[in-house]
Amino acid sequence: MKSILILGIESSCDETATALYDSEKGLIAHNIFSQIDLHKQYGGVVPELASRDHIKKLLPLIDSLIKENRLDLTDLDAIAYTSGPGLSGALLVGSVVANGLAYSLGIPSIPVHHMEAHLLAPLLEHNQTAMPFVALLVSGGHTLLIKVEQIGDYQLIGQTLDDAAGEAFDKAAKLLGLDYPGGPAIAKLAQSGKEGIFEFPKPLTKKKDSLDFSFSGLKTSLLYKVQELESKNLLSEQTKADLAHAYEDAIVDTLIEKSRRAIQFAKVNSIVIAGGVGANTKLREKMKDLFSKKGIEVVYPSIEYCTDNAAMIALTGLYNLKEGISNDSYEINVNPRWSIDSIYNSHG
After folding, report:
1. DSSP string covering 224-248, please?
2. Mean pLDDT of the chain
3. pTM for the whole thing?
4. What top-level class would CATH report for the domain 129-300?
5. CATH number for domain 5-120+308-346, candidates 3.20.20.10, 3.30.420.40, 3.20.20.70, 2.60.40.4070
6. Separation of alpha carbons 63 and 222, rounded Å
7. pLDDT greater than 70 at residue 348
C-alpha cells in the first residue's frame, strides 16, 4: 500500500508553519517562522499584522520545505490546514493557500481543529499514549480539560471562564514591564524570586467540584499589588522577581489542582499536557513530581511541539483523511470559535 504524504499548514495566530508528514515514515520535516519580534513592540498579537505576515511568509516556507527535502508539489497526497479556532484573518490565509493549492493539484484539502492537533501532538513522538486519558491544553488563548476516550471522541470537562493561562502570563508581564510573550519572561524572572514573599489567590480551587478555570481575578490581584508597591516606591527589580515567582506559582498550582480533579473525575491513569504553556518548566516538574507518586503517567510533547506548529496539523490531517474527512468543495471556510467538543458535528 502506497504511503500518504501530507503537507501541514498552521496559521492560526502568530506562527507561520509548514510540515511534511508521511504515513509510513512519520514526520519528514517542519519549519516555523515566529512573529514575536513583529508583535513585541505592541505587547501582544495585532491580528491585521499577523495576517499580512502570513501572506508574506507562507508560500516561501512551503517552497523551501519541498525543495530542501528534494520533493515536488506533485508528490503530495493531501494538504491539511488549521481551520479554527484562532484569528479569523490569519486562519483565512492558511485556508486560501491550502485549498487553492489542493484544488490545483487535484488532491484533498483537510480542515483541522487547532486544539485537537495540540491534543494529538504527543503522538508525533510516542506511537501510543494509553487511552482514555485527560488532556490539559494550555495556551495564550485556551485553557481546557478534555477527557479523551479515543481519537475523535472528546469530552470537554473544564475550561476557562475568562482569561486563558497564557493570556494571564502576557498581561502580568506587561504590568511588570517585561517583554512579550509573557510566559517565558515571567518564568525567567521568577527564577530569581524568593519563596513566600507574596501570595496570590488560586482561582476556583476552593470550589471542590469545579473543573473550570478563571484567571482574571488573579491578574487584578497583581495589578493592585503593583500599584500599591509603586505608590510606596518599593517596586525594585528584586520585588518584581518575587511577584513573578508568586504569580507563576499561583497559575501552576491551579493548573495542577484542576488536573488532579479531572483525573479523579474521569477515572483515568494518564494525562497529556500540551499547548504553549505546557513548555513551562515549573509546570512540567511539579506535574511529574506529584503524579508519578500516584502512579499517573504524565505525557508532554517536546518543547518544539508544545508551541503552535504544522507537524501536529499534518498528523491530525492524516487521521481525518483516514476517517474520510476533507473539504471536498475547496470552500474557504474557517471557524475562529470552533469548540473542540463539536468537531465531528462541524465537518461538512
Report:
1. HHHHHHHHTT---HHHHHHHHHHHH
2. 94
3. 0.93
4. alpha beta
5. 3.30.420.40
6. 46
7. no
